[in-house]
Design a protein that fits this description.
By secondary structure, this protein is an alpha/beta fold. Helices cover 41% and strands 18% of the residues. The radius of gyration is 16 Å and the shape is globular.
Length: 179
């Protein structure tokens, strides 16, 4: 069985944040242990180099994410959108630079006031970059950290169901392509 590559990219200016914890948990809930290799890119650790186009560590992270099968892009909600740190990282990709990557947008916030932000702000950017987004963006309210695993598990089940629905179409689409 082939293992898939997973990248978790977190644009929280604070390293080792709750947003990072939620994003890693989502990856773990989506996939069966032993079937994936996960890279975690905590952009707080690269903040000083994010605008340096020659920074090897950032360029390596950009290439790693572009080569991933699945990427989770996470950030806290700032002004009803994602952080500038995540935007600066994503700006390094050309149009279709994430082609071939299945991407899940995830934002965290203090309350449900910005719950549409992942779908309204981050999803359009990821699709512009060529990624496939298998459903609505995931918004997690940080006051629910005590119930995080259950909430994240339910979200993962929706993404798995959505991806399964698309996978069921493949045999028919492949037949049409060959005709």
């Amino acid at each position: 069985m082939r293992t898939i590559s997973v990248s978790v990219v977190v644009g929280n200016p604070k390293a080792n944040s709750r947003t990072l914890e939620v994003a890693k948990t989502l990856a773990e809930c989506l996939l069966v242990p032993g079937t994936y290799d996960m890279s975690v890119i905590d952009l707080a650790e690269h903040a000083g180099d994010i605008f340096d186009q020659t920074a090897a560590s950032v360029n390596e992270a950009v290439a790693r994410v572009a080569g991933s099968d699945l990427a989770i892009f996470a950030a806290p909600t700032y002004k009803a959108a994602y952080t500038g740190l995540l935007k600066a990282f994503l700006d390094r990709y050309p149009s279709d630079g994430l082609s071939g990557v299945t991407a899940i947008p995830l934002l965290t916030g203090a309350d449900l006031g910005h719950s549409l932000a992942p779908s309204a702000t981050l999803t359009p950017l990821l699709t512009e970059l060529g990624a496939v987004v298998p459903g609505r963006g995931f918004y997690f309210v940080t006051s629910q950290m005590d119930s995080m695993r259950d909430i994240v598990q339910r979200a993962a089940e929706v993404y798995v169901r959505n991806m399964g629905q698309v996978a069921r179409l493949l045999p028919v689409l492949a037949d049409q392509e060959q005709a």
